[in-house]
Design goal:
Layout: H1 29-32, H2 47-66, H3 86-89, E1 97-106, E2 126-135, H4 138-144, E3 147-153, H5 159-165, E4 170-172, E5 186-188, H6 189-196, H7 205-220, E6 225-232, H8 234-249, E7 255-261, H9 269-278, E8 281-287, H10 305-309, H11 312-323, E9 334-338, H12 351-355, H13 357-366, H14 383-386
Parallel strand pairs: 3-6, 6-7, 7-8, 8-9
Antiparallel strand pairs: 1-2, 2-3, 4-5
Helix pairs in contact: 2-13, 5-6, 6-8, 8-9
Keywords: Chloroplast, Hydrolase, Lipid degradation, Lipid metabolism, Plastid, Transit peptide
Organism: Cannabis sativa
Family: Belongs to the AB hydrolase superfamily. Lipase family.
Length: 387
């Protein structure tokens, strides 16, 4: 659940510049946030919908570009920029948004004592994982049709985050995440740990997001308000957990939408049902060649290949056995399926290329419809972005 640290966008590259001539959403903003499950907007991909997906992808890219990936640096695993200049310094300054909160995630992995003798970058517990930004520009608020709040989350970067990713069995959500009840959702153990773990000096990601959402709702709750959580890879998984926690905890929560890029599976069918019940809208942007989107665990739905290959009774038996294990996952939300093999501009396609955020944004830019997976266009990514 990781991306290469060289994931970048070039602000002056016309390939990504929907924000140079952004469409006005106005009163239709709820449709683009998924109130109708993006009916009629994804296949074929509507121009305004494309621009919105790319725009939220740029917020995630800014999280990558702000992160200090250098293990020899004294500021490793922190944000390289202050809140006031983060978007500007990452080449994404003309957004009308202002960063209001830095976010950190803490690994709950219990490490042996001898690990303290290793370099500090290998044992760092808490690291900067993203930020909250609030739209403050009046013209942009008018274009969007509401004040938008973005939570942007990066993918895996540190050693202990990688270890958390390996904890792929399902676990019950703890009582302090979401509503109480006998049928609590189960989620991937490592993602749950990263969302809820804390140290004596660093609150949990859950605490930071809850506190900031509460502050924003109190400040702007009397006007049209949306909360958009966007992330790539690990960040996409944490975005779904965050959305679940917010919509099931805050009675006055604003409209919550998730734009997920290359996200792994997160939880079981109960999680999906609770998300649907809460009104959370999730758009999963998936590259069919990206293996990360197919893990962890197994998904067996009522209408999948297993049910078609075997008799109803055999398929039901298999589903029942899978649900009783720690590996029975369920996909959530609506899916925009892309395919890296359809792009004539991608070279040397491999695991890393298929999962890279810049590949996802390239595919979103070129996707037309399921019958025309990629448009032949002269807008070709520069070789330094693709190779």
């Amino acid at each position: 659940m990781q991306t290469q640290k060289m994931t970048t966008l070039t602000e002056n590259d016309a390939f990504y510049n929907c924000h140079l001539c952004p469409p006005k959403l106005g009163k239709k903003w709820r449709e683009y946030q998924g109130c109708n499950d993006w009916e009629g907007l994804l296949d074929p991909l509507h121009h305004a919908m494309r621009c919105e997906i790319l725009r939220y992808g740029q917020f995630v890219d800014a999280a990558y570009r702000a992160f200090d990936f250098d293990p020899t640096s004294s500021s490793y695993a922190t944000c390289r920029f202050s809140k006031n200049v983060l978007l500007t310094r990452t080449g994404f300054g003309s957004t009308g948004y202002r960063v209001t909160k830095h976010l950190h995630a803490t690994c709950g992995v219990q490490t042996p004592g001898w690990i303290d003798r290793l370099p500090s970058w290998m044992s760092i517990k808490s690291s900067w994982i993203g930020y909250v930004a609030v739209c403050q520009d009046k013209d942009e608020i008018s274009r969007l049709g509401r004040r938008d709040v973005v939570i942007a989350l990066r993918g895996t970067a540190t050693c202990l985050e990688w270890l958390e990713n390996l904890h792929t069995t399902l676990t019950d959500l703890p009582p302090h995440v979401g509503p109480s009840g006998s049928c609590r959702p189960r989620v991937e153990r490592g993602f749950c740990s990263l969302y809820t773990s804390r140290t004596a000096t660093c609150p949990s990601l859950q605490d930071m997001i809850r506190d900031e959402v509460a502050r924003i709702v109190e400040l702007y709750g009397d006007e049209p308000l949306s909360l958009t959580i966007t992330g790539h890879s690990l960040g996409a998984a944490l975005a779904i957990l965050s959305a679940y926690d917010i919509t099931t905890t805050f009675a006055d929560a604003p409209s919550v939408t998730v734009f997920s890029f290359g996200g792994p599976r997160v939880g079981n069918k109960s999680l999906r049902c609770q998300l649907d019940k809460s009104g959370t809208k999730i758009l999963r942007i998936v590259n069919s060649d990206d293996l990360v989107t197919k893990v962890p665990g197994f998904v067996i739905e009522e209408d999948n290949d297993v049910a078609r290959m075997y008799s109803f009774h055999v398929a039901s038996w298999i589903r029942k056995r899978m649900k009783s294990t720690e590996w029975g996952y369920a996909n959530v939300g609506k899916e925009l399926k892309l395919c890296s093999k359809e792009s004539p501009y991608l070279n040397n396609i491999n695991f890393a290329t298929c999962h890279d955020l810049k590949t996802y944004l390239h595919l979103v830019k070129g996707f037309v419809s399921s019958t025309c997976p990629f448009k032949a266009t002269k807008e070709v990514l520069s070789t330094r972005l693709i190779n």
